[in-house]
């Protein structure tokens, strides 16, 4: 079913949702620039020149030049951001609010003194609301989750690719394990990859430690992790689908941090290189999804699995016929710190792959302690694979999965490497269901 956005019908009200945020991103960032005295002075000295230095649409610039807050909000502005612009012009909040209602500042102040605007006459018209609910029919076309890809994202793999070492005896077995995957991707190319990974103290340092981060931006550059950025293409996002997913997952009670700008490290770029090879541009859009598995507490396997189920509902309620793959990355067993550094557990890793295929719901109940004890402190990354597994059709009984490829190898630098491809095969509708 289409997402419920009847809040847009409340009269005289602009709700700042993900779509509005994307529309007004640069406008609101312009407002944030006015938080320094130097920038405020520069703006007041020549408003037009200052605005022209920002990638704003002409409608956004004109709304500000005309002092038209309603127009600015139609163009994606948010009142809390625009308040910084108003303050730069010396406007009080009551002046700004009054200007949007057609009142003078004094008239608006008098209204507030007498109890404010009445809600009577300012609710959604019942006929409009009923028509909106009656029109909530399933879209004729929608996005589908076609497959899940699971892979390690070892940084040394990226270095081996970038320095032409893939045919060396040490590395050849690793890359041979991905030859099938590259051909399979050529034959099953998605429109969008929803790529689950963890940032490795690159985009997120100790100043902010978000649990789940959804990339809602248009583009993401490769990060410099200390050795210079990898020589790979930048990432093109899919802001529209990302905004839709954000709306759906948050309404499903998954708390997300939405990020429009960030660099992406090896956790995201290495899987792309393994699956698509050396390319001038990535052949599909990518939505980055970061999971904190660095600082405890980290999300449980069960929460990740449930998030994957909600993710599939979100994707398949999007009303465009996109083919989407969900990738779970990280792991397998490895420990990078302390006297146990170098720990590898082949038996546990392969049992994990078995259960991921055959018993994902049971695997989702494995506690953090088992991951750390059996797979090493950094093996906890494997909980991210459960997001991709939860997005498959067999979980809710709407289809079946097919194992297309499975690969395991030790070592790649400090880690074991695991890789799995599962295809979704939706169950055919019965004649009764079609009716």
UniProtKB/TrEMBL annotation:
<dbReference type="Pfam" id="PF07746">
    <property type="entry name" value="LigA"/>
</dbReference>
<keyword id="KW-0560">Oxidoreductase</keyword>
<dbReference type="InterPro" id="IPR004183">
    <property type="entry name" value="Xdiol_dOase_suB"/>
</dbReference>
<feature type="domain" description="Extradiol ring-cleavage dioxygenase class III enzyme subunit B">
    <location>
        <begin position="148"/>
        <end position="417"/>
    </location>
</feature>
<protein>
    <submittedName>
        <fullName>Protocatechuate 3,4-dioxygenase</fullName>
    </submittedName>
</protein>
<keyword id="KW-0223">Dioxygenase</keyword>
<feature type="domain" description="Extradiol ring-cleavage dioxygenase LigAB LigA subunit">
    <location>
        <begin position="27"/>
        <end position="113"/>
    </location>
</feature>
<dbReference type="GO" id="GO:0008198">
    <property type="term" value="F:ferrous iron binding"/>
</dbReference>
<dbReference type="InterPro" id="IPR036622">
    <property type="entry name" value="LigA_sf"/>
</dbReference>
<dbReference type="InterPro" id="IPR011986">
    <property type="entry name" value="Xdiol_dOase_LigA"/>
</dbReference>
<dbReference type="Pfam" id="PF02900">
    <property type="entry name" value="LigB"/>
</dbReference>
<dbReference type="GO" id="GO:0016702">
    <property type="term" value="F:oxidoreductase activity, acting on single donors with incorporation of molecular oxygen, incorporation of two atoms of oxygen"/>
</dbReference>
<dbReference type="InterPro" id="IPR014159">
    <property type="entry name" value="PCA_LigA"/>
</dbReference>
């Amino acid at each position: 079913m289409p997402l419920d956005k009847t809040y847009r019908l409340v009269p005289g009200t602009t709700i700042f949702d993900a779509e509005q945020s994307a529309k007004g991103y640069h406008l609101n960032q312009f407002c944030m620039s006015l938080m320094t005295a130097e920038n405020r002075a520069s703006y007041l000295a020549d408003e037009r020149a200052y605005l022209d230095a920002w990638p704003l649409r002409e409608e956004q610039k004109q709304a500000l030049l005309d002092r038209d807050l309603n127009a600015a909000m139609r163009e994606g502005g948010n009142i809390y951001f625009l308040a910084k612009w108003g303050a730069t012009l010396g406007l009080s909040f009551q002046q700004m609010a009054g200007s949007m209602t057609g009142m003078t500042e004094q008239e608006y102040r008098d209204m507030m003194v007498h109890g404010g605007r009445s809600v009577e006459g300012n609710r959604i018209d019942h006929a409009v609301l009923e028509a909106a609910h009656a029109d909530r029919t399933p879209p004729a076309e929608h996005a589908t989750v076609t497959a899940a890809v699971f892979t390690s994202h070892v940084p040394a793999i990226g270095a081996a690719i970038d320095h032409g070492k893939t045919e060396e005896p040490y590395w050849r077995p690793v890359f041979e394990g991905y030859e099938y995957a590259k051909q399979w991707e050529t034959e099953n190319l998605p429109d969008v990859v929803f790529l689950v990974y963890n940032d490795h103290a690159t985009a997120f340092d100790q100043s902010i430690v978000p649990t789940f981060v959804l990339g809602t931006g248009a583009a993401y550059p490769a990060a410099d992790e200390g050795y210079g950025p990898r020589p790979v293409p930048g990432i093109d996002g899919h802001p529209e689908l990302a905004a839709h997913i954000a709306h759906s997952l948050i309404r499903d009670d998954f708390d997300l941090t939405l990020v429009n700008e960030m660099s992406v490290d090896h956790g995201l770029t290495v899987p792309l290189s393994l699956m698509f090879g050396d390319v001038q541009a990535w052949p599909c859009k990518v939505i980055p999804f970061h999971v904190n598995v660095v600082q405890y507490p980290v999300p449980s396997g069960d929460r990740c699995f449930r998030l994957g189920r909600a993710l599939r509902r979100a994707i398949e309620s999007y009303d465009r016929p996109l083919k989407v793959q969900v990738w779970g990355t990280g792991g397998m067993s490895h420990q990078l710190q302390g006297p146990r550094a170098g720990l590898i557990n082949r038996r546990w890793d392969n049992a994990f792959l078995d259960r991921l295929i055959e018993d994902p719901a049971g695997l989702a109940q494995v506690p953090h302690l088992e991951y750390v004890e059996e797979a090493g402190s950094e093996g906890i990354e494997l909980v991210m694979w459960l997001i991709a597994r939860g997005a498959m059709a067999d979980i809710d009984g709407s289809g079946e999965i097919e194992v297309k490829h499975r690969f395991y190898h030790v070592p790649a630098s400090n880690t074991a490497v695991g890789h799995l491809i599962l295809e979704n095969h939706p169950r055919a509708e019965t004649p009764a269901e079609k009716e």
